[in-house]
Amino acid sequence: MSNKNQEVGTNELKRKLGLGAVIALGVGTTVGSGIFSSLGEVAGAAGSSMLLVLAFLIGGLVQIPANFCYAELASAFPEDGGQYVYFKEAGSRPLAFLCGWISFWATDPPSISIMALAIANYLGFFVPTEGIVLRMVAVVLVLIFMVVHLRSVESGGRFQTVITALKIIPFVLIIGMGIFFIKGELFLSATPMAGAAATGFTALLAGISATTWSFDGMGAPCYMSGEIREPEKNMPKGLILTAIIVLTLYVGLTVAASGLLSVEELAASEAPIALMASKIPVIGSYAGTVVAIMAIIVVVGSLSSCIMFQPRIEYAMAKDGLFFKSFAKVHPKYETPYFSIIVQCAVAIILIFATSLSDLLGYFTLVALLKNFLTFGTIIVLRNKPNYKPTYRMPARFLMIGIAMFMTGTLIWSTFVWAPIPGIICAIVAVVTGLPVYYFWEKKNKEAKQ
C-alpha cells in the first residue's frame, strides 16, 4: 500500500467479479424502462412494421462498434473509473476531472432518483401510492440497494446477475409465446415496398436514430474494470456478449410486436408492450399485471446496476487526488468504496424530493453525450503512446471508432435540437464550476509533493 493511500485510510479494491458480472452490469444497465416507450417511438419514426424491425436490427449492429472501443480501452487500462481513466491516460487530466465532476453532480445521482421513482410508480399498479408515500417508497428502494452493494461486491455482483437473468426471462417468455400468435399479413401489410424508395430509406434512418437511446449503457462494466478477474479476457468478451444479448432481445421483441400489432397501433400506444401482451391469448387478460411486474424487475436491475458501478468514478478520482479524499476510502471489512456509495445515494435521495431540480439536471444529457463522443476519440490519441498496450484490439479500428462517434453524434444532435440553449448553458456551467475546482486540487497535489 502506498503512503498516500495510508494517509487517506484506504485499501485497494480487489478483483472479485467474473464474466457473469460484466454481462449483468452491461445488460442490466442497458435494458431499462426506455424500451417500454421507445418501441412506440421507433414505430412512429419508421412508419412500417418491416422498417421497425430493420431499425432495431441495424440500430443494434451499429452500436456494437462502441462496445469494441470500450473493450479495447478496458483491456488497456483494467482499473476502476471508466471514462475518467481513459481521458487521464490520453493526457488530459482537466477533461478527465470534468468527466467525473459532471457525473457526480449532474448525471449519476439523478439517474438513481429517477429509476427509484419509476419503480415506486409501477408498484402503484398493485398498491396505489402518491405524494410523500411514493417518495418514501423510492427512498427505501435506494437504501436497500445501497446496503446490498455496500456490504460486499461479491454478493452485489451475484444479486446483479440474478436480477438481470430475471429481467431477461419475461422478455423471452413474451417473445416466445408471442411468436406463436403472429399474423403474417399484419407483419407484412404495412411494409411500403412500392412507391418512393427515398421515403422508405429516410424512414429507416429515422427509425435507426430513434433506437439509439435504447442501446445506451452497455459500457457500464468499464467503471469496475479494476474489480474484474482476468480483465484482459473477461472485459472484451463480456462487452461483446452484452451487445449480442441486448440486440437479440430487442429484435425478438420487435418481431413479436410487429406480428401482433399494426405499426399504427404501436406508434399510437403509450404502453406498447402492455398492448402487445394483451394480444397473446395465454396472458391477454393479465397483460397489465404481467407488464407491471416485468417493468418493476427491469428497472430494479437498472437501479441496482447504477448504484453498483457509478460511485467507482469518484473513487478513482479521489485516489488521484482530484476529488475529496474520503471518496477513496475502502471499507476494511466489506472491501467496497463505501463512502462514495453512501454519498451518491444521499444526493439521489435529496433529488427524489426535489423533482424540479432533477428535471433541470436532465439538460446535462448533452454534456454527458459529448463525454461519450470524446471517449471513443481517446483511442486515436492513445494508440501511439507507450503506455497503451491493450490485450484486445478491435477489428477495423478506425472504421469502428468512426461508427461509434457517428452514432453518438446523432444522439448529440437530437438532444441539442430538443433543448439547445439549456444544453449550452449546462456545458458552460460544467466548465465554469469544474475547472476552478480542478486547479485547486492540482495545486494541493503539487504542494503535497514538495
Description:
This is Amino acid permease. Pfam families: AA_permease_2 (PF13520). It is found in: Cell membrane. With 450 residues, the chain is mostly helical. The chain has one domain (19-440): Up-down Bundle (Amino acid/polyamine transporter I), CATH 1.20.1740. The protein has helices at residues 3-8, 19-30, 34-46, 49-61, 64-76, 83-89, 93-123, 131-151, 153-179, 184-189, 197-211, 231-260, 263-268, 272-278, 287-309, 311-319, 338-352, 355-361, 365-382, 397-418, 420-449. Helix 4 crosses helix 11 (197-211), helix 9 runs antiparallel to helix 15 and helix 14 packs antiparallel against helix 15. The longest helix is centred in the first third of the chain and has 31 residues, at 93-123. The radius of gyration is 22 Å and the shape is globular.
Give a concise summary:
With 450 residues, this protein is mostly helical. The protein contains 21 helices and no strands.
Low-confidence stretches: 1-10, 191-198
The second-level CATH architecture is Up-down Bundle
What is the H-and-E element order? HHHHHHHHHHHHHHHHHHHHH
Strand fraction = under 5%
Helix content: over 70%
What is the topological layout?
Layout: H1 3-8, H2 19-30, H3 34-46, H4 49-61, H5 64-76, H6 83-89, H7 93-123, H8 131-151, H9 153-179, H10 184-189, H11 197-211, H12 231-260, H13 263-268, H14 272-278, H15 287-309, H16 311-319, H17 338-352, H18 355-361, H19 365-382, H20 397-418, H21 420-449
